Amino acid sequence: MATLKEKIGYGLGDMASSMFWKVFSAYLPIFYTNVFGLDLSVAALLFLVTKIWDAVSDPMMGIIADRTCTKWGKYRPYLLWVAIPFAIAGILLFTTPDLGETGKNVWAFVTYILMMTVYTAINVPYGSMLGVMTENSDEKTVFSSYRMFFAYTGSFIVLALWEPLCNSIAGTSGKLTYEPTAWQTAMIVVSVTCLALFLLTFKMTRETIKPGIKQTSIKDDFKSLLHNGPWWILLGGVLLFNFFGAVRYAVIPYYFVTQIAEGATLSFLSIDFLFYAGIFFTIGEIANMAGVAVATPITFKLGKKSTFLYSLFAIIAICIAFYYVPTDSTGGYWTLMLLQIACGIFTGIISPLVWSMYADISDYAELKFNTASTGLIFSSSSMAQKFGGAFGTSAVLWLLAGFGFNTAKGAVQTTEAIEGLRLLISWIPAGIAALSALFISIYPLTTKRMAKITEELKERRNG
Question: How far apart are CA 226 and CA 238, in angstroms?
Answer without folding.
Answer: 17
